[in-house]
Amino acid sequence: MSDADASGSTDAGGGGLRHWLFLDGNRLLITALVSVGVFAVVRVAVAAGVLAVGPSGNVPTVFGSGITAGVFTLVTLTLTVNQLVSSQVFGKPDSLRQRYEKGAQLRDRVAALSDRPATPVDTADFVAVVGEALDERADSLRGSRLGTASADADGDPSSLASDLDDFADEITRVSGEMEPVEAISATAGSDYARLRRRIRVVTADAELTESVADDLDAVEELLGHLSVARQYFKTLTLHQELAKLSREIIYLSVPCLLVAVAVPLLYRSNGATLSAAALPWAVSTAVAVVLAPLVLLVVRLLRVSTVMRYTISAAPFAPPEDWPWNE
To answer: Is residue 317 classed as helix, strand or coil in its secondary structure?
Structure first.
């Protein structure tokens, strides 16, 4: 496999803090860490005199009107997200039947190409089965007479069989036991598109036996099915992410509204119900709590937008490989 191809797989599955932040990290944990950071920043700003939280400040006005309105806006946004997710699920009987039939045809075709009576119903395991079928075809190609190789490295059937085997090993690591985002990260990259192009080069430039030509045709078809399957898996995962986002924002909105209503009640016309020492801590905590839904929204959408951007291609074209943690 070329260096560019190899880097695509490595980039997609690479580790590091940015990879954890953009994809693999627990969204609730990241939200909690950012909220703690917000609390610390506000508390330091209050201690430094940059922010005024005393009775003469504007804290009651900010919490009583601005923040409360912002929380209601987030709830409205949540309803919009729910409508977006629901619109992709609902449909008329004819369209639902067509989806079912096309999905069944895909499963049956992959089962035939992989010499299996049936394929798994779990999408991640289905992707792994495609990887196993690719691995079997690669072994068959390696053990066959591959004919005359092209002078171009991309047109060398032996090199193609070796690279295809490496790619299949990566795909077979995907299973239903993995987190959805981990499975997407493991299958992301441009290898499938580049391998499909190399198959066309080999078919055009090399003198192939009938069995090798059949294997290459099967591999090309499996690569297409793999592209469709993982795009479908990505669609399911993103729908789940958006559904989780809606539910979590609804959960957080209730305590946020309570805090936004309670903070103005701490203040009186001539002072506050809390002591001067406790008031900065209370206001700093309140700011972190009321901003938590917004932080959660940003953190969830950061993962969604990252997955959508770098796995956008479902056709035989290479998606971008400049993953954010490598920029």
So the answer is: coil
